[in-house]
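ok trying again, last paste got cut off:
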Amino acid sequence: MDKQEREQLKHDVFVEEVSHSIDYAATHKKQLSIYGGVALAVLALAGGWWWWSDKQAGLRQDALQDALQNQQAAVGPGSSPFIRSFATQELKDAAIISSFNSLISKFPSSDEAWMGHYYIGITYADQNKFAEAEKEWQLVADKGSKEYAALARFGLAQLYAKQGKVQQAETHLRYLADNPSSLFSKENAQIELAKLLAPTKPDEAKKILEPLRQLSTRNAVSRWAITAFGETKPGPNGK
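nice, full thing came through this time. structure:
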């Protein structure tokens, strides 16, 4: 997976969304009591629960930020008090995987844990460890919340396309087009699907892109569609 594809996987909106993820607390019905002491005990218990929940959220965010610092760290000689760095890419990759695995172990099934699986998948993909990357992303696609699952599916689509598994990549992109999220829109999925289909099904690719190119009121989407549309045009020999 080349640098440009990796950067697309690291979509900044995703990082921002996860950094401000919302923690949901379960609510429980309490049996009414005529005894004031019991009522006070219930209130004290509830206060303790909310304090513990807030504390856990803070711990998760701290662990996430530490892991993200490893993921975004520089590689090479020299150091800075403001930027984390590693001497080699191998050391950086090991730190990324270790820090995210620690987060996952401490807070399994949390949104931060799904983000951990996602970034571990990116690290493995960069190392050309495709089976390991697929395992991480498939886990998020199957069990993560809708937003994170969408980006994991896109990661899988890119991974399969890179390996020439066009049918598997197409399946994920069509799913994303039919089930858009705030982090991966229907238009994004359609453009990526058209680019995937262009070499073998140029007519279908153009059919997907034409409405976006002509009718979209979103300038960025229109520009991407026009660019992708140009990539689907036949070459000088009609191919």
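cool. DSSP finds eleven helices and two strands in the chain. The longest strand covers residues 74-75.
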